[in-house]
Amino acid sequence: MMRIERMHFEGAPGETVLVELTTPESALLARDGARLHEGERTLAQSFTAPARRDAFLAGRLAVHAGLANAGDSRAHRMPVLRDGRGRPQPSWADAPAISIAHTKIRAVAAVSTVRTCKALGVDVEEIDAHRAEALLRMAISPEERKLLAEVDPQLVVAPIALWCAREACVKTHGLDVGWFGSVLQVSSIQPTPPRLTDAATGWDIEAAWNIEVRFESRAPMHAHAWQANGAVFALSGR
Ligand SMILES: CC(C)(COP(=O)(O)OP(=O)(O)OC[C@H]1O[C@@H](n2cnc3c(N)ncnc32)[C@H](O)[C@@H]1OP(=O)(O)O)[C@@H](O)C(=O)NCCC(=O)NCCS
After folding, report:
1. Residue 153 beta carbon below 6 angstroms from any ligand 1 atom
2. 193 CB under 6 A from ligand 1?
3. Coil, strand, or helix at residue 156?
4. Above 90 in pLDDT, residue 80?
5. pLDDT tens figures, 87-103
6. Staple 59 to which of 32, 73, 107, 223, CB 3.0 to 4.6 Å?
7. Burial letters for 22-55: b for 16+ Cβ neighbours within 10 Å, e otherwise?
């Protein structure tokens, strides 16, 4: 199933199109993936693991749906390739800011509708208590843990939101950080009304937060994160 929404959030100018593609089965992906540009299909084939290939195809289908929704008339004929660091790279000039993320069961893509948006970062993670516990053990400082406990005493969803916020900021700001990202410090996590409000399309948002992330002496970065449909999503932009 594909959901397409538009939203405003702190940090990114203009409206952002958010696309979520859930539980794409391999057979369906192979069929829909055939519509993708040959350059994208060739890239997909370069991944030996079938799950990674499927995730790549799902991400490309999501980003093309977002580009079409944002009104980019060239996107349906041109491939979104990857640069040397793995970032998704439109192969045409003056493309909007885009970002992609995936889990085993869903892909998300963000596309800006305005050219003043220089970069977007999106992330998604499935909610999983074991994953939250591992993050708390390996990647979250005692100060961050205290902040998280104030908004989520169970410490299951907020640790994952913190992780997604960090990854969204890494993607937006092109940061090179260690695997656990512990050099990125979350300095505040504030409950906020969700920026995605269209309940009619079944987002079923249970909580949302604005998260401030600090990295060395840079100006603080911001991400908007929300819990919905068994996962946590985060977006940041500049
Ligand atoms: C780049 C990075 C954020 C990708 O995250 P991931 O969990 O591996 O995968 P996600 O599902 O979130 O995103 C994958 C997509 O991100 C995009 N991507 C990959 N590298 C990227 C980069 N350097 N910048 C922006 N986007 C990138 C790609 O579109 C990729 O999908 P595709 O290869 O199918 O096109 C991650 O590999 C990384 O280096 N993180 C820094 C270390 C870290 O995780 N720290 C903890 C949080 S800061």
Report:
1. no
2. no
3. coil
4. yes
5. 999 999 999 999 999 99
6. 107
7. bebeeeebeebbeebbeebbebbeeeeeeeebbb
What residues does CATH 3.90.470.20 cover in the chain? 2-118
Buried (b) or exposed (e) across 77-114, using 16+ Cβ within 10 A? ebbbbeeeeeebebeeeebbbbbbbbbeebbbbbbbbe
96 near 73, Cβ under 8 Å?
no
**Which residues contact residue 206 at a Cβ distance below 8 angstroms, ignoring those fewer than 6 apart?**
227, 228
Architecture of domain 2-118: Alpha-Beta Complex (3.90)
Contact 76, 86 (CB under 8 A): no
Tell me the per-residue pLDDT of 120-139, one tens digit each, with 9 for 90 and over. 999 999 999 999 999 999 99
**Cβ neighbours of residue 89 under 8 Å, at least 6 residues apart?**
80, 81, 82, 83
Question: What is the DSSP track for 175-214?
Answer: ----TT-TTEEEEEEEE---S---GGGT--EEEEEEEEEE
Measured from the CB, is residue 95 less than 6 Å from ligand 1? Answer: no
